[in-house]
Design a protein that fits this description.
This protein is α/β, with parallel strands linked by helices. It is built from six helices and six strands. Bound molecules: adenosine-5'-triphosphate. GO terms for molecular function: monoatomic cation transmembrane transporter activity.
């Protein structure tokens, strides 16, 4: 029988956002499988994460071979390339299995991600900007 990894999370794309996400999940005790097509990124993060694989995430067959269907959740952390992010979500949706979280860089990008199968869409830059604004304002109030 195939091993189930319901508590495990796949992180696709080890850019500035994806690498912090993957290392935080690891620190929180979750099994992480990280995927990036760039061999330099794979080499850089291999010592710090359980499993880092070099692969193109837009290829459904590759995702299947990596056993992604057994994981509970997958986060598509690719940001700059809308095409790579959309094709990856599409391949994951066709694969079935993990709940899909995906990073968007615009509202249109978010709508496409939702329409091809993303359950949750995240905007790391917008969310961080908003959070820091609230933090600054809340600390201003401390001094009044
Ligand atoms: P960040 O802001 O998180 O640094 P970014 O938008 O600057 O991200 P991107 O170009 O989105 O950077 O790439 C994030 C990571 O995703 C990179 O390490 C890149 O190699 C990886 N990546 C991009 N396309 C694919 C793909 N098709 N398959 C696997 N990994 C990919």
């Amino acid at each position: 029988a195939r091993r189930r990894r319901d508590g495990g999370v796949v992180v696709i794309g080890l850019g500035r956002f994806g690498c912090h996400l993957a290392s935080s999940l690891t620190q929180l005790g979750h099994e992480v499988l990280a995927v990036d097509r760039n061999p330099d990124r794979v080499q850089k993060w291999s010592p710090y994460l359980d499993r880092v694989v070099q692969a193109d995430s837009t290829e459904e067959g590759t995702l299947r071979q990596l056993g992604l269907a057994d994981f509970g959740r997958v986060v598509v952390a690719i940001g700059a390339s809308v095409e790579a992010s959309v094709l990856t979500v599409l391949a994951l949706a066709e694969l079935g299995g993990p709940e899909i979280w995906a990073r968007a860089t615009s509202d249109q990008h978010a709508r496409i991600l939702e329409s091809v199968g993303a359950r949750h869409v995240i905007f790391p830059e917008a969310e961080t900007g908003e959070r820091v604004a609230h933090l600054i304002v809340s600390r201003m109030l401390d001094y009044i």
